[in-house]
Amino acid sequence: MYQMKSVLKFILVGLTSLLFVFCSSFISEEEEQQIITPIVVNPTSGPASNFDLKTWNLSIPDNNGSGVAKTITVLALNQNYQNDKYFYSADDQGMVFKCFVDGFKTSANTSYTRTELREMLRGTNTGINTQGVNKNNWVFGSAPIADKNAAAGFDGEMNATVAVNYVTITGSSSQVGRVIIGQIHANDDEPVRLYYRKLPTNELGSIYIAHEPRDGFGSEQWYDMIGSRSNSASNPTDGIALDEKFSYKIKTVNNILTVTISRPEKPDVVKEVDMTNSGYDVGGQYMYFKAGVYNQNNSGNASDYVQATFYKLEKSHTTN
Prior knowledge:
CATH architecture of the largest domain: Sandwich
Number of helices: 4
Distance between the termini: 85 Å
Radius of gyration: 25 Å
Order of helices and strands: HHEEHEEEEHEEEEEEEEEE
Structural class: mainly beta
Largest sheet: 8 strands, antiparallel
CATH class of the largest domain: Mainly Beta
Shape: globular
Strand content: 35-45%
Helix content: 10-25%
CATH topology of the largest domain: Jelly Rolls
């Protein structure tokens, strides 16, 4: 009986080997390599495992206990933090930001919810204040020398590759479908806000920016880059669809702001804004980048939302 089992086992092993050889003849070299070394995607890892977030914190529209939005510190963010409702890794390891119409805001004076990164050049050194001309923030190259020396750097460039996955479809005609995906924030104002907007009746979305001079230095300035920001805009012929990847660059040199939108096999779309008379080159004005989704709709259904996935997020500054 034992001998019979051994013979059967020998025959079975032989047949298995022949079957493998036979099947292998139909497998290409590329497929064979994939079998030997499969690509493993681990979406359970937080975004900090795929992106350099060592100088960012995160705001999410949850209650921090005091009735305002919760801040995820630089330290916590880089300890594999993710939140399956607002901020997490996609299956392709993109960094997903999601923000509903309903939620807690960063302050009583803020009208809209956000899931957004805030640049924190101090990193985990909490001995440096978050606000002020100090080593947590940067200034324009046109700022006074004393401020340039006191800040963490001057001028800046932020580069991102992103796909907007969803925008609001309910709410007032002046708010539906719009979201801010990148900005420079100063003490109280925003030198630039970068918008994506797709109206419910359109297949493609538009890109535009806003430049906000400081109080007393003029009115807010709006610039269409792709399509129109109009509440009744027709479908932009060269617009950007939901889930379509594109790149943006926000750059400052002294008082010149340049925003660039890049897409494969299409010419770059560039807008330059002269900020000489906008009031940011005086002492005491400090800057920081923001990236993510800043929902610009507070009139839609509570469960309506915006969502974007970032595939690249890098920034740099000039240092003394």
